[in-house]
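The freezer alarm interrupted the setup, so I double-checked each line after restarting. Inputs confirmed:
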Amino acid sequence: MKNKCLMAVVLLLVGFSGVAAEEEALAGDTLVTDPMLLFPAPVTNLEGRDSDNDHGHSVDLSWELSPDDGAGQRSVMKYDIFRWIPTLMDSADVIRSAIGVALTAREVDEVPGADWNDTLRFLRDVLDTLIVQFPAAHAAYPNDGEWRRVGMVPSGEGCFEHSGPKDRLSSDFLPDYCDFRFRVDAVTSDESIRTSSDVAGPIQCYGQWFNSGRKPVLVGVLVFGFLTILMVSRARKGADLYVRPISGIEAVDDAIGRATEMGRPILYVLGLGTAADVATIASFTILGRVAKRVAEYQTDLIVPTYDPIVMSVAQEVVKSSYLDAGRPEGYNEDTVHFVTQSQFAYVAAVNGIMLRQRPATNIYMGMFHAESLLLAETGVEAGSIQIAGTDQIAQLPFFIVACDYTLIGEELYAASAYLGREPVLLGSLKAQDYAKAAVVMLALLGLAASNFALPWFVNLFHVID
Amino acid sequence: MKRQLPFVLVFIFGVFMVFQYFAPHEKSERIYEFFLDWIYIIGTFALALGIWSLFRVSVDKIKNHKEAWRYSYVTLAGLYLMIAFGFTQRVGEPWGWYFVWLLLSLVCLGSVMQARAATSTGQKKKYAAAALVALALAVVVALLDDAWAFYFYTAEGLENSMFRVFFDYILIPILATMFSLLAFFIASAAYRSFRARNVLASLLLVAALLVMMRFNPWIPGAEQVARASNWLMNVPNLAAQRAIVVGVGLGMVATALKVVLGIERGYMGKG
Amino acid sequence: MNRSTYIVVGVVVVLFLLSWILKAVSLSGEDHRYILHGFLITMSAFLTLAIFSFLYRDNPFYKFAEHLFVGVSAAFWMTQGFWSTIVGNLIPRLSAGFSEFFMVPHQPSPWNIAYWIPVILGILLLMRLSAKYGWLSRWPLALIVGTTAGLNFVRYLRSDFIVQVSSTFVPLLGREPHQWQGGGAFISHLDLSATGQLAALLTNWIIFLGVFCGIVYFFFSKEHTGVFGRASRVGIWVLMITFGASFGYTVMGRISLLVGRVTFLFRDWLELIS
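Predicted 3D structure, all chains:
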């Protein structure tokens, strides 16, 4: 009897304490009813593919937004992108860190006598060995790896580009031809409350051999190339090619004659471009023509150059011109000489030549910068006839105000055809004119298209990098 | 072979660069980066050719007593000193006999120039002897003086304080002054060209004046001038720039294509 | 040199020495290397004045400064090129032995063998100095010219042709926020203000016509007569407006360069302004 009463008292005590605990719990947290209602809906249709028109190492992901994106209590604030990364890549990161430490130590030579080059070579070999194993490690999913966050986008965005550099030594290196797997977590304001999507993959990234976004340029290359070859072949067959007169080019012969009569030299300035610049290449051709006439008239020619490679090419050109004119003995090696590769030092020297040697004619053909005005004004002071040609729009005004004749922009490139009158070069000039006509026609068509809502035509000229 | 192979090479490299523009693949990019690196490296080798040309022209001027030949000594001295500063470095606290060595080596070089330029045998011998003595003394100083040395380090070679002094107190002031001459020349060019001789010069004059007065608050009608100037920059200026760019662009493209296809060959010379 | 030249040079030398002494004295309180810095600042000021003297006429001081500038700058770029490109960029890739000799960090890579090619081509370029083997120097020139021609061909075709063509696709009948809604709506809501529809319309038409006439000017295949000639005439007028605008735009910038040098002379050298 006594035991039964004791048991009843214990049961009652336990019962009351349970009720009291439940009431306490309810009093402290009245909002929580069912935890599953707080987790947002996941994103759907997660897809991934290799990024287009690149050198590889890049994957594009896209998904449909979570229904809870920016809505209600389960509002999705952001999306975390996860990638499954095999543990082998951690080993590669350790090796990369070791390489970094070794490079730094080699710089400061912390341990005198240590052969850091051997260490670095060893570490790079180990890294290369690990990188070779990356495809197999990725294929071992879901073993020997873990999910890691690789990016984040705010709510409202349904795409993400996961890319990395092509440098193997970078910790962000993304290897090609490996089976990547991704998932996207819809995350609320509480980081711990998130829902993962289905896993997308395997997805591989790799470089493309053709950038389809540059198709308009390819069409331009083919059309222009075809046009040039066509006009050149027509010219070779003896077609009559009219070109209108350009006063600046016609003045070159007169200017050379003037210099011969006055017994003064001709100064030819190739500009401050390198042999890589197209304007300088055009100037070489003009120099060749001028040098040939100079050789025929037995006038002196001075060609100070800014770039040593330009000097080498110009020497070849002038020497050949003297050969063509039948006066190889007239060629002086110092006709074309290097001055300096400093812009204003070059100008100071050329100004000095102008004031001391008093050339009768100054010809400026090529790429010029701020020094154009210095050259042209000094030439005016020296009393020289000046003919200039450049494609630098900013310098044209100065040549126009200071020189007697100026070839504006494209006229510089046309000058070589004008001076030589070679059918092949005239044919190429015709091709340029046809291209300009095409520009005008395409512009008119494009105007009509953009004004009458035909975007497909406008998009034909849209180049995507 | 001598003549044709360069044009074949131009074609191969040119076509590759066109191909590379459309092929973003890593392998294509790597070759592209190689080519660009190679151009820089070859260009640096070409500098030696340039320096040799400058040296030869200066020596020729001295030898033949051409116009302003004495100043060629200044050019050669500047050339030599800057190269010396670029390849030597102080290792001790004071400079020691460094400047004496520089002076002796300059005297040696000057004597060699004079010996080449001398007309009589006696003079040649005199200058040659002076050059030898200066050279011997310079070698002795270089061997015995520990305060400086010839160095082949990367940064230290350019860290020579004399290199910086020449850069900061000779190169920069002269460069900046040459640049500032433009202010005077632009005024003289404007004065000469703004005597409007024809319609074209008048148009140029009016447009230039409008733009120059753009930010001037003191002229009457400053606001209208500023507006007209802005319109000028944004409308007809834009149109003409586009027309020139189209023309220049087509010219460049045509020239580049002619070079690649071997139609334009003038730049390679003959023989 | 005649007597007056000697006198002028003598006066300049005396002024130089005087300036040096005065400058050194003024720097002595704050700079322990006042003699050296006094000399350097005075030298910079005199070189500046020597270049300015060119505005009067060619003279020995300008000649001295010019020749010094040429020599020093040529060697500067050569030295800079050697250390930064050859030693900094090329040597570390050529071999470990070279890297050790020049005391630069070796950069091993399986591709490094390719860097021997520009070395060989550079040496071939130097063959220019030989009369017999000078023709070999054309090969590196071919690499440089061919590579850059190919590069320029596609890039300028895109930037100066395709992009320019697509930029002329401007709305001639209306643009945001003034969409074309028919002639009736245009007349009834006619707005002559600078931000109105009429101004926008006129602007686009002027741009289009300006581009068209400018391109016509550069036609070489047809004589500029008749309608074509008139369009070409309009084209050159538009070009002249551009050149005038460019000229005016540059004037202010050029004058500011002069202000910099004058400030150096009057502040750093003569200490007439603070």
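Quick read of the result. Residues 197-268 of chain B form one domain.
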